[in-house]
Amino acid sequence: MSRIEMKTPLVEMDGDEMTRVIWEMIKDKLILPFVDLKTEYYDLGLKNRSDTGDTVTFESAEATRRLGVAVKCATITPNKQRIEEFDWLKKLLPSPNATIRGVLDGTVFRAPITVGNIRPIVSTWEKPITVARHAYGDIYKAVEILGDEPGVATLRFTGESGEIQEHEVAKIEGGAVFMGMHNTVQSITSFARACFEYALATNQDLWFGAKDTISKTYDGLFRDIFEAEYAGYSSRFSDQGIEYFYTLIDDAVARIMRSKGGMIWACKNYDGDVMSDMVSTAFGSLAMMTSVLVSPEGVFEYEAAHGTVTQHYYRYLKGEETSTNPVATIFAWSGALRKRGELDGISDLCGFADRLDSATLGLIEEGYVTKDLVNLVEGEATQQSTVEFLDKIAVRL
Ligand code: NAP
Ligand code: MG
Q1: How far is the CA of 385 from the centre of ligand 2 (A)?
Q2: Residue 155, pLDDT score
Q3: 9-55 pLDDT, tens digit each
Q4: pLDDT value, residue 140
Q5: Atom 47, ligand 1: residue with shortest CA distance
Q6: Which atom of ligand 1 is the closest one to the Cα of 304?
Q7: How far is CA 228 from the centre of its chain?
Q8: Which domain holds residue 208?
């Protein structure tokens, strides 16, 4: 059988632990037999990030900007425990995802992978809900003060011109807490553009909710920037028959719960943090969530939403068979191959990505699942090891 040819390589970002093991298996069993795979390979495994002083992460992000599409394996974000675990690790390297997001100025879109025999907890949801989380600022870059005596707190901005804007926050009698947070016009604009681009790319409505009735200036700026940016997109939205609308965050929450799903829900940083966990849990399992980083120029990086599944890896190292769910990582590959196919006009590559997805979902719908899904599926379920599960997908393909 001849394999499907590619034109432009994918940026391949390898990773750590159990997901690195699964990465290799997915390529060997599900992709290489069918696709003449072209990738530009970057090893983002912790050892190589450490050996290169993390330059490999920046290089992989730059390559993504150049080539347009990347697929990323989950990676370790080191903490103190990891420094004890690996004697060669000297520095707490930053999260690769944060580095890549910073270089690409991107927004993260998370969507559940839905199957017929796993019903969402919210019974009205028929289609996946994609949460778009703004990934800069607000409480994540705030400064905080605890005041323990009577006094006054002020908020002051000193412009380079020397102009000062100042407001009293509160006079206190003692015992109070304060927070100063910010966001930037550039970051909010990038966020808005990434959301509009992604809505067009996936043909879904876009909702945005904030609290501009209370936070008239701060959340008001978010609303205004979205509205101003939308002016440049509205005709393409109506051509595609999709819509954008803004509503209060509490109204958005109520509408989401009553909806059928199938939309992108743009959230400010904190709202997105909280709501993406709610939405993913209500749809089933973290192992069934995809994540794609989209830059305002329309560059795409696909990955699974979960981490490196460390506890499974330790069992794997002891020679035990694990039943780790590879579905989100498979979908990262199919997402990237499909996007590459679209950009390069290779319909066979898009078709292969579709068949890879449906072979995977079809297997789950027949009741063959990894351990994490055994108690979630309706009807009969047969637990598979990771290898058995991947082999059965290969047979279906
Ligand atoms: P995790 O790897 O997502 O795993 C947490 C738990 O969720 C696992 O122990 C497992 O539960 C379950 N799980 C997650 N994915 C699964 C899958 N594919 N199949 C079956 N079960 C799955 O998160 P973590 O333990 O907090 O983090 C581990 C490492 O991943 C850390 O070093 C962290 O820095 C990194 N991380 C990376 C990314 C990324 O690269 N995007 C994201 C998050 C975390 P059971 O053990 O109960 O089976
Ligand atoms: Mg969270």
Answers
A1: 29
A2: 97
A3: 999 999 999 999 999 999 999 999 999 999 999 999 999 999 999 99
A4: 84
A5: 372
A6: 41
A7: 26
A8: 119-129+190-283
Q: Ligand 1, atom 36: nearest CA belongs to which residue?
A: 307
Domain count, the chain: 2
User: Taking Cα atoms as reference points, which of 361, 287, 369, 383 lies closest to residue 116?
Assistant: 361
CA of 78, nearest ligand number: 1
- How far, in Å, from the CA of 18 to the mean position of ligand 1? 9
What pTM was estimated for this model as a whole?
Answer: 0.89
To the nearest 10°, report the CA torsion of 397, 387, 11, 96: 150
Single-letter residue type at 22 = I
Nearest ligand for residue 271 CA: 2
**What residues have their beta carbon closer than 5 A to ion ligand 2?**
273
Mutate to test the pocket of ligand 1, among 71, 309, 374, 385 (most ligand atoms within 8 A of CB): 309
Instruction: Quote helix, strand, coil % in the chain, to nearest 5.
Output: 45, 20, 35
Any domain includes 377: yes
pLDDT tens per residue, range 154-210: 999 999 999 999 999 999 998 999 999 999 999 999 999 999 999 999 999 999 999
> What's the confidence (pLDDT) of residue 259?
97
Answer yes or no: is 56 within a domain: yes
Residue 277 has pLDDT above 90, yes or no: no
Task: Check pLDDT > 80 for residue 379.
Answer: yes
Q: Which tens digits make up the pLDDT trace of 228-246?
A: 999 999 999 999 999 999 9
Q: Which ligand is nearest to the CA of 323?
A: 1
- Count of H-run helices and E-run strands, the chain: 15, 18
What are 290's strand-pairing partners?
Answer: 111, 304
Ligand nearest to the CA of 77: 1
Is 124 in the same domain as 262? yes
CA of 54 to the centre of ligand 1 (A): 22
Half-sphere CA count of 278, side-chain side, radius 13 A? 13
Same domain, 101 and 123: no
Q: What is the pLDDT of residue 212?
A: 96
Looking at the CA of residue 303, tell me the nearest atom of ligand 1.
Answer: 41
User: Does any domain span residue 146?
Assistant: no
Do 4 and 30 fall within a single domain?
yes
Residues 207 and 253 in one domain: yes
Select from 133, 308, 315, 322 the residue to mutate for testing ligand 1; criterion: most ligand atoms less than 8 Å from CB.
308
